[in-house]
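Here is the promised in-class demo. Please do not try to memorize the tokens; focus on the logic of going from shape to residues.
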């Protein structure tokens, strides 16, 4: 709330009319003070057009993606490792 109010004051100090402000975006973190959008607008002195709710982070999907990436990396590294393990060191040194 304080961040939005300070931005509005900054805009007003630059002689910007409050009705000319198109948007003020506020990243509100949860706090003990809960404000409804109408109360937020009253404190700001402007109309609230819309509210975008915070998104939830899908932790299980992130963990599954991490596991898949690790498995894919191991599979990609397995083929060159297998081919290198089949090569006899003595045969390679004699060829040089």
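The designed amino acids, position by position:
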């Amino acid at each position: 709330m304080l961040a939005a109010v300070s931005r509005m004051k900054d805009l007003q100090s630059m002689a910007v009319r409050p009705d000319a402000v198109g948007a003020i975006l506020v990243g509100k973190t949860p706090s003990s003070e809960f404000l409804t959008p109408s109360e937020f607008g009253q404190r700001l002195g402007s109309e609230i057009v819309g509210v975008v709710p915070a998104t939830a982070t899908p932790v299980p999907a992130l963990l599954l993606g991490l596991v898949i990436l690790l498995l894919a990396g191991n599979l990609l590294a397995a083929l060159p490792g297998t081919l290198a393990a089949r090569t006899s060191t003595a045969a390679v040194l004699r060829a040089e």
